[in-house]
Amino acid sequence: MQKKPRILIITTSAATMTDSDKPTGLWLEELTTPYYAFLDAGAEVTLASIAGGKVPVDPNSVKPRGENDPSVERAMQDRVFQTLIGDTLRFDTLDTTGFDAIMLPGGHGTMFDYPESAELAKLVADFDAAGKVVAAVCHGPAGLVGARRADGTPVVAGRRVAAFTDSEEQAVGLADAVPFLLTTRLKKLGAVIEAGPDFEPFAIRDGNLVTGQNPASAEPIAKLVFEALDEAKGA
């Protein structure tokens, strides 16, 4: 019997933007779309967060019932999911050795706590070094900026990466609210940034590294994760 892939999803725990009371958090679709894609394909999914406890959801990512992405609508009625998101484990309390992939959904909250987590940077680097799948979407690649290879070079150096673009950040009016512009930072770290049109689906895979540009990219990124998992299994 084939072993189910084990995927660890780690969300932000930042509920407000630093030095302000402006609410932020997880962009819900960027969690729910891959979460259900993974589950429906038979994967074993574990949901955790940076600090543990209730995952803060960006209020702008949830519309009145009936007006959301199908995965968000499904999550609204899913008691199991609501229980999970209401009380997550802190990711660095888990034994991560048995996981085949990590997934970092976005939301502006990630810009405030992902880059500050040395534990997350180490986990990303360890997974990458082991050839395990590392996936991130939209602002999720903020969790890649601190990750370093054994020789000290950034994990993203020389790798094709997609992330929320500077022009998208300008378009949503939050370029001055975030601590840094994500694609600018990734470029400085040596990443080869690739992008599609603003707010259109765009996801790419560079070996075991899978990244997506924006919320609309959450669906294609899930497909690329399975493609990478299948390739790793056959290696």
Core attributes:
single chain; 235 residues; alpha/beta; Rossmann fold; seven-stranded mixed sheet; two-stranded parallel ribbon; 9 strands; 15% strand; glyoxalase III activity; stress response; transferase; DJ-1/PfpI; transferase activity
Secondary structure: elements and pairs:
Blueprint (H helix, E strand, L loop, with lengths): L5 E6 L16 H13 L3 E6 L20 H7 L2 H8 L2 E2 L10 E4 L5 H4 L4 H12 L3 E5 L22 E2 L4 H6 L10 H7 L3 E2 L9 E4 L2 E4 L5 H17 L1
Parallel strand pairs: 1-2, 1-4, 2-3, 4-5, 5-9, 6-7
Antiparallel strand pairs: 8-9
Helix pairs in contact: 1-2, 1-8
Percentage of residues in DSSP E strands: 5-15%
Number of strands: 9
Evaluate the radius of gyration.
16 Å
Biggest sheet record: 7 strands, mixed
Give your account of this protein's structure:
The chain is an alpha/beta fold. It has a single domain (about 5-235), classed as 3-Layer(aba) Sandwich (Rossmann fold), CATH 3.40.50.880. The protein contains eight helices and nine strands. A seven-stranded mixed beta sheet has the order 3-2-1-4-5-9-8. A two-stranded parallel sheet has the order 6-7. α1 (about 30-40) packs across α2. It starts with 5 loop residues before the first strand and ends with a helix.
